[in-house]
Design the sequence.
């Protein structure tokens, strides 16, 4: 009977020790859980931050592409404007020089005129004013055709028809109308502004 109190005391001592162990274990478990939760929080937060950063950089790239596209469109529009100005002859000295009038001189014409009553001949140098250098080059390439037109008109004249200032003016207008005719059937009239006489001799 004397041993029973000793057993009771041993059980009382064991109970606090087991409680302490339980508290320590719970503390460790809570610490591990807290640490794991914090780690999980940071691990989850990091991808979100990277994703937000990725979205931000993507938006910046898209803005950059849009700005580059806008700049490209502006440059293209400016190039188109410059080309139109060049073709129309406006927008500066270079365009005006390229689209300005061009003068083309014909070789000397020497033709017999119709008897009036005496036979006479005409020695004529003429220059035409074309709309631009491109047209002048085109006419130069078709020079045999153009000279034929001039010769046919000159040989139909009498000396008395073209000897006076009025007669020369009339001849110039007729030559202009003749030279303006299209080079081929169905073509457009040539943009020749005027015919100029640089030498005019009747003998």
Sequence:
């Amino acid at each position: 009977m004397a041993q029973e109190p000793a057993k009771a005391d041993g059980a009382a001592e064991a109970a606090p020790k087991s409680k302490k162990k339980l508290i320590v274990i719970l503390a460790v478990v809570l610490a591990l859980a807290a640490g794991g939760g914090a780690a999980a929080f940071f691990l989850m937060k990091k991808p979100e931050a990277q994703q937000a950063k990725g979205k931000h950089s993507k938006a910046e790239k898209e803005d950059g592409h849009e700005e580059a596209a806008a700049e490209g469109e502006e440059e293209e529009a400016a190039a188109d404007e410059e080309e139109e100005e060049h073709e129309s002859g406006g927008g500066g000295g270079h365009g005006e020089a390229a689209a300005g009038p061009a003068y083309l001189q014909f070789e000397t014409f020497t033709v017999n005129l119709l008897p009036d009553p005496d036979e006479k001949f005409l020695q004529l140098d003429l220059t035409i004013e074309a709309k631009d250098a491109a047209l002048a080059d085109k006419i130069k390439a078709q020079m045999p055709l153009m000279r034929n037109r001039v010769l046919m008109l000159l040989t139909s004249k009498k000396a008395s028809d073209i000897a006076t200032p009025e007669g020369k003016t009339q001849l110039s207008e007729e030559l202009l109308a003749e030279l303006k005719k299209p080079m081929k059937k169905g073509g457009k009239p040539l943009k020749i502004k005027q015919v100029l006489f640089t030498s005019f001799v009747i003998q």
